[in-house]
Amino acid sequence: SEIMLQQTTVATVKGYYDAFLERWPDVGALAAADSGEVMKAWAGLGYYSRARNLKKCAETVAADHGGAFPDTEEGLAALPGIGPYTAAAIAAIAFDRPAAVVDGNVERVVTRLHAIDTPLPAAKPEIRAIVAKMLPTDRPGDFAQAMMDLGATFCTRSKPSCLLCPLERGCEAHMLGQETRYPVPKPRKAVPKKRTLMPIFANREGEILLYRRPSTGLWGGL
Predict the structure, then answer these.
(1) Residue-wise pLDDT tens digits, 147-189
(2) How does the average pLDDT of the chain come out, rounded?
(3) Helices (H) and strands (E) in the chain, counts
(4) Residue 51 CB contacts under 8 Å (≥ 6 apart), including other chains
(5) Radius of gyration of the chain from Cα atoms?
(6) Residues pairing with 208 in the sheet
(7) Is 2 a known active-site residue?
(8) CB-based contacts of 73: which residues, under 8 Å, 6+ apart?
(9) How far apart are CA 129 and CA 144, in angstroms?
(10) Which of 11, 76, 126, 172 has the least CB density, counted as fewest CB within 10 Å?
(11) How far is the C-alpha of 99 from the C-alpha of 150, rounded, in Å?
């Protein structure tokens, strides 16, 4: 679920998640699956490198870890496709490890709570250090999910519900009346435009010739 939720909404992920687990219910089944079938099941979620890395991750866990995931941030981060955020989220939520889980929602809560003027992404180390200090000694998984939900439901980007927020009294941005100023974004770069020509070859029977792109680069593996 953490891999699927990278840059994809919960509403979009739900159906894919259920179908994926029904087809490959454990890491061993995914490790043994045909890569083409995994990519086909992922179709529509986008960012296909996630599916390739998830397959590699399952193969690594099955081959090198006896089919059991490592239960520490460090061990999880060493697996294919699992970066610092995902490793912390899995460690906290699945294994109840005291890991500082920082996604976009948590960044928004913390930058407002402390009125952090450093733009993102430069502010990320400071935010992570603050979250690490806030971590409770027990139920770190619940704390991680609560912080993410707080950002997703009350401390929203454009119209935060400050009167309902349990952190309202200690929130520096709220005291300043500048909630939506935070987090401070970095200056935007001009978005490059690309044109792509896609020829389609078909025979008289209506069959279409398909070519699989290299696994890396734009639309890798499609």
Answers:
(1) 999 999 999 999 999 999 999 999 999 999 999 999 999 888 8
(2) 93
(3) 10, 0
(4) 38, 39, 42, 45
(5) 21
(6) 202
(7) yes
(8) 84, 87, 88, 91, 97, 99
(9) 14
(10) 11
(11) 18
List all residues 6 or more positions away from 216 whose beta carbon is below 8 Å from its beta carbon: none
Environment class of 110 (CB within 10 Å of its CB; exposed 0-12, middle 13-18, buried 19+)? buried
**Interhelix angle 49-64/35-42, nearest 10 degrees:** 140
* All residues at 6 or more sequence positions from 213 whose CB lies less than 8 Å from its CB, including other chains: 219, 220, 221, 222
Total-model pTM: 0.79
What does the pLDDT average to over 144-148? 96
Q: Which of 2, 126, 168, 172 is catalytic?
A: 2
Cβ pair 203, 141 in contact under 8 A:
no
Extract the tokens encoding 221.
């593996």
Both tokens of 54, joined, read 């998830």
In a 3-state reduction of DSSP, which class is residue 162? helix
Do 145 and 88 form a contact (C-beta atoms < 8 A)? no
CA angle 108, 84, 80 (to 5 degrees): 140
DSSP symbol at 168: G
pLDDT in tens, 100-118: 999 999 999 999 999 999 9
Residue 89's region, left for phi above 0, alpha for psi from -120 to 50, else beta, is alpha
